Amino acid sequence: xxxxxxxxxxxxxxxxSPSEYKNGLPMFSVKDMRDQGxxxxxxxxxxxxxxxxxxxxxxxxxxxDILIAKDGSVLKHIFRVNRNPDYVLLSxxxxxxxxxxxxxxxxxxxxxKEPGTKDLILNxxxxxxxxxxxxxxxxxxxxxxxxxxxxxxxIASILTSLDDKIDLLHxxxxxxxxxxxxxxRQWFVVEAKEEWEEVPLSNFADFFNGKSRPKEEGLVPVYxxxxxxxxxxxxxxxxxxxxxxxxxxxCGSLYYENKDVWVSDNALLVKAKYxxxxxxxxxxxxxxxxxxxxxxxxxxxxTQTLLKSIEIQEPPIDRIKEFDLMVGTMINKxxxxxxxxxxxxxxxxxxxxxxxxxxVRVEEAM
Length: 366
Prior knowledge:
Blueprint: E1 7-12, E2 25-28, E3 44-46, H1 48-56, E4 66-69, E5 78-80, E6 88-89, E7 93-98, H2 105-113, H3 115-124, E8 126-127, E9 133-134, H4 136-139, H5 149-190, E10 198-200, E11 205-209, E12 217-224, E13 227-232, E14 240-245, E15 254-258, E16 262-263, E17 267-272, H6 278-286, H7 290-293, H8 304-308, E18 311-313, H9 317-357, H10 362-365
Parallel strand pairs: 2-6, 12-16
Antiparallel strand pairs: 1-7, 2-3, 4-5, 4-7, 8-9, 10-18, 11-17, 12-13, 14-15, 14-17
């Protein structure tokens, strides 16, 4: 069946963006989308009058509508609205309203996410010379395989249970990270002592430049300023490492790893000089707003010399090691969760096309 046949509406948000209104009501665009919903931080807000005007124009979704990244990062995010929306949408997001007598909303999400369907959409229903975008009038005619409703719900239930577990683990990790940051601020900012001496950051850390990425692929993560860029067949650093983005838009970004890595030439590696001080150093760097310290406005740059010269208060080493031990337990849990996330994601991605095609039956997957 075509998408038009199993839906009541295939549209998008507002093609006009009202003026910003501080502390107003949220209006989301594709940049605010995440895997399971929206990020309110940094979202544009508009006046109440503009907000309700856009609702009347159909720019607010309903529960069980499917929202799709339509412009720019096409299909990067696809999710079902699962609670009453307190926002309106811009045209960069498509709004799909399923006919629930014919198609289960959660099943429709996975049907569109299925790799073969995504490839079909990207190759046949995307236009735009500058910013790529889904052409909705054509998109409505995409054909989907729609089994009976009971089968749809069973398939969606299996895949949703995996996504819910992945989401729970992500939220656990976010909570653990917030706990570690709160503990650092309490111990080393709120409870800082006047008698703690001011010393350069070089007293705590050694800095190393990254190197050009190897050509050969492998299993070792390659880190740049924007995180993992790919994988190489060798490492240039091992053990507890802090990676700092040093140039451009990702200047001052921070990553922690406890395994072999390759640090590329648009990042710096930071190593703690003391044993059991890496976690302290990582959260210390997070409090420093490194991006604002970069040299140059059009193409910001962080250098080893600049970082080494930053003045900080020096807490007692015993306090640092106690913090490292406590946070180390949290980091270990985060890493265990990340391993489970990767396993569950691989399982979901493997099951999705097989369940959709009927290669694997629901009974076999359960």
